[in-house]
């Protein structure tokens, strides 16, 4: 989780488990087409996790030879081409994946992440909202966090606040959601609520599970001011100046200090 702040949205698909006996499943006389599909797709994702995108393509193409409409293989190829920065091809495979399995929360989350990375926020928010609709999606808390960050980008703070609250209800281990929600609460004047969330975030920093980032430091400055802790406010301000001098948050700090 260290340096999680550097990752805007995470490829949930890479969490698909890969069987350690993949070759056995290909060759077993009892293997079914479905088992082969899953094994080829898992093998492709193993290569992608290892950063070997060239080798990832072969097994995924083999899966599509077995089933030309297999959504997980389309999704995995979209991630492969996204990693290679072939964005047009990546989008085309994401759209094939969505068409093949429109109910897949994982695919909607990954496609939303792709669109977010392209600053196509309106489209991204739609996909990420779809990802939160499946109550059995294992990464649903992450999907709500992603959704909240997206809706902040288009100024819908009401929806963003709801999404961050849902993320934290589903999983308290979402330090990014804590800071994003604390920032919204500060804007609404709920400084006490923001202070509670920031204290929870600090526990992750103290445990070295995440580093401060520009927004967390700016939230820290304002919470420390509310708590009348001038020393802590000054510390956060100095860190913000030294670590993120070009950030929007540092500009807001300078304006607030005038």
UniProtKB/TrEMBL annotation:
The keyword Signal applies. Keywords: Signal, TPR repeat. SMART domains: TPR (SM00028). PROSITE patterns: PROKAR_LIPOPROTEIN, TPR. Residues 1-18 form the signal peptide. SUPFAM superfamilies: TPR-like. TPR repeats lie at residues 37-70, 71-104, 141-174. This is Type IV pilus biogenesis protein PilF. It comes from Marinobacterium lacunae. The lineage of its organism: Bacteria, Pseudomonadati, Pseudomonadota, Gammaproteobacteria, Oceanospirillales.
